[in-house]
Amino acid sequence: MERTFLMVKPDGVQRGLIGEIVSRFEKKGFKLVNAKLIQVDRSLAESHYAELSDKPFFGELVDFITSSPVFGMVWEGENVITTARAMMGATNPSAAAPGTIRNDYAISVGMNIIHGSDSPENAEREIGLWFGGEALSYDKAINKWI
Ligand code: GDP
Ligand code: MG
Questions:
Q1: Catalytic residue among 7, 115, 127, 135, which?
Q2: How does it assemble (predicted)?
């Protein structure tokens, strides 16, 4: 079963949106298999966003992610990587479709509430980086109805 790494960024934690965001993925039918509140250090932030290290906003991005705790999660389910990205909406909230998390709660690209892995390779890399690859395996009785 596919797994992805999702993270409520510092703006989402500060604004009290952890519960709202967890709730959306629970109601969708995905299964939460790991989660923790983390005060990110620069080295973790730089590793996580390594692919963006050449971008002009990289320093600002690392400053932001390390500015206040984030809530990291591992979610499991069929096509969860692509579906979670769709539920998040486009990177820039002004281009995100109505009803998506970024359209509903964010205005600026720098503070867009949530991160989600963009490919199976990055999901595995990020679950390794943030959780040492660890996640629970358990059954939910409701799963046969989803
Ligand atoms: P994502 O996968 O949709 O989160 O987008 P990317 O992987 O391309 O970028 C990672 C994060 O960098 C985004 O979620 C934004 O918060 C941030 N970011 C992207 N573009 C910009 C930009 O032009 N300016 C700033 N300040 N941040 C940006
Ligand atoms: Mg990305």
A1: 115
A2: Homotetramer.
